Amino acid sequence: SDMLKNNVIEPLRVSVQEVQASTEAATLILRIDDVIASKSGGGGAPPGMPPGGMGGMPPGMM
Question: Do residues 33 and 40 touch, judged by C-beta distance below 8 A?
Answer without folding.
Answer: no
